[in-house]
Amino acid sequence: MSKVETFTAPETIETVALSDLYLSDLNPRQEVGEDGIALLADSLVMCGLIQNLSGLRDTDGKVAIVAGGRRLRALNIAVTERADLAQVPVKVTDKALLQTFEHGELIQRSHRC
Fold this sequence. Notes:
With 113 residues, this protein is α/β, with parallel strands linked by helices. Helices cover 35% and strands 22% of the residues.
């Protein structure tokens, strides 16, 4: 049996205004299908946001989203029908950890059926 080592990253989940979020260049999904985003927006209207986004605060106080780019795009659509989606939970952390999150998210996605 192998030993799994874990660490706890210094992070904070903050509620951030949707208008203060933007897609980071570090986000792996720079191009996405509009049909999928529309379906995700419909789901957000019906169910709300289930998983927070992850990002990096910039020098202007805005947050660059590294993990959750599809959700960010869909939130911008869904907020027209559900105003409460204008306040978004975001895991805000430092740049090195965000690159780790980005890599980890891609690995998890590649192992899904």
